[in-house]
Design goal:
Layout lengths: L9 H24 L9 H43 L4
Length: 89
């Protein structure tokens, strides 16, 4: 992700860090699970798969909500720029 070096917003920095953490965790999880069919052979392995699916489902819900919120912010920003300054972006 390209960083905007002119402006620093602590909230955006926190969001960026969180998203990068999710991305890193997802890549690590993928590496650990690839070829891991034998994991399901044990009760612990099956529980791990169930827990992982729940965890990934929570991520998907959070990311979808974040994308919707970011789209709303983008629309409001465009509307504000057009209304107040006549800018068309």
């Amino acid at each position: 992700m390209a960083e905007n070096t002119r402006h620093s917003d602590p909230q955006m920095d926190a969001v960026r860090t969180a998203l990068e953490g999710i991305r890193t965790s997802a890549r690590d999880l993928k590496k650990n699970l690839e070829g891991g069919r034998a994991v399901a052979a044990t009760p612990e392995g099956r529980q791990r798969i169930v827990d992982t699916r729940v965890y990934l489902g929570e991520w998907r819900v959070l990311l979808a909500a974040a994308v919707r919120d970011l789209a709303d912010v983008d629309r409001v920003l465009d509307k504000t720029l057009k209304k107040r300054w006549g800018l068309h972006v």
